Amino acid sequence: DTGVSQDPRHKITKRGQNVTFRCDPISEHNRLYWYRQTLGQGPEFLTYFQNEAQLEKSRLLSDRFSAERPKGSFSTLEIQRTEQGDSAMYLCASAKGGFETQYFGPGTRLLVL
Amino acid sequence: RKEVEQDPGPFNVPEGATVAFNCTYSNSASQSFFWYRQDCRKEPKLLMSVYSSGNEDGRFTAQLNRASQYISLLIRDSKLSDSATYLCVATPDSWGKLQFGAGTQVVVTP
Predict the structure, then answer these.
(1) Better-predicted residue by pLDDT, A24 or A100
(2) pLDDT at res. B2
(3) A97 contacts in chain B (CB < 8 Å)
């Protein structure tokens, strides 16, 4: 257990529904990252926060995706109008700073039917 | 072309043997490099950082060749518990986001 928690651990939804995932980072970590991992691939960067500021978003993050980190603590990732291609594991990681070790949460597995 | 490329394997290794594998990265400006380990259906966990001079952590040795843009990992005296997918990682800029390869699967057999 790295100290990063994610909720829910599993989510099954129907195409077109909205889903929201939560990540609670290690408490003193300023950086929070979201990644997505599909079967047989490594994690791909989606977005990251320095405290409450969202500093970069990947081109993978379409308009249907939005992430927030109010008050610089926990973060949420919302996917609107889910598509089957959104099925993946969504990983959250936190770090003290830019080049510090990133600690990953257990991930949220999303299956879109 | 992926930014970080790895041989997917699997590398089937007898217990006690040595196994080595590489990855290549395309962005010459990449600043930091790591090996992460990922067990089936689990999150990635940092195995070790990779330094220009090469570094060792127990049975694991990592090397970085900036001129050829490749990173290697060597595992000596393989244990059954070393069976996992090993993810090669580079950071393309100073913001810390990680670029992962697709992973190399290692299977250690009795």
Answers:
(1) A24
(2) 82
(3) 96
Q: Do B43 and A105 touch (CB under 8 A)?
A: yes
CA separation for the pair B63, B66 (Å, rounded) = 10
Contact B94 A91 (CB under 8 A): no
> B107: which 2 tokens?
């299977």
pLDDT at residue A52 is higher than 70:
yes
Q: Is the pLDDT of residue A66 over 80?
A: yes
Neighboring chain A residues of B32 at a CB cutoff of 8 Å: 99
In the structure, what pLDDT confidence band is assigned to residue A98 with cuts at 50, 70 and 90? low
| Chain B nearest CA to A38, separation (Å) | 10
Residue numbers in A near B89 (CB within 8 A) = 42
Residue of B42, B46, B96 with shortest CB distance to A31: B96
pLDDT at residue B97, rounded to an integer: 87
Q: pLDDT over 90 for what percent of chain B?
A: 80
Distance, CA of A52 to CA of A69 (rounded, Å): 5
Which of A67, A74, A72 has the alpha carbon at shortest distance from A24?
A: A74
How far, in Å, are A51, A62, A85, B29, B72 from residue B89 at the CA level? 24, 24, 24, 14, 11
Cβ contact A55:A1 at 8 Å? no
The pair of structure tokens assigned to B96 is 């810390």
